[in-house]
Write a structure and sequence with these properties.
Oligomer: single chain
Distance between the termini: 67 Å
Radius of gyration: 21 Å
Number of domains: 2
Helix content: over 70%
Strand order of the largest sheet: 1-2
Shape: elongated
Number of helices: 5
Largest sheet: 2 strands, antiparallel
Length: 140
Amino acid sequence: MRVLWFEIYPRFALTDEIVPSAITFFKETLTGSDLGWIQLSGSLVTNIVSWAAGLMLLFKKFRLYGKLSLLVVGLLFWVELPSNILLSYEPLIGAMNLGMSVLTISLMFSILIIGPFLLYALSLKGEISKAFESKRTSIS
């Protein structure tokens, strides 16, 4: 098992490459769908937080700083899934380890990426239209 540049098990030593510890450990001990769930879990948890922030913005009334902080948190968590897919492919490999077809994977990740963004757009639609309306009235 490795953590950053250290090999901890079977012997303690320094290595010349960084390896994420949890995935390395689980790749050595798990196979198939168990490994697939581990590979998907990080991205799915952050995506759930992104959905929750979007739903809270849509259905609850917050003051400006509450809306802004939820939006920032939600967008930061939202960016994690597409960047993880593009940079490490780990969620894709995890979905394949679960036995999902390419069409199912594409549809699932499209919904998980587009959905929170639409929630944020819907929740901020009123704020954006108010801002444009105030600009329009101040100009005329």
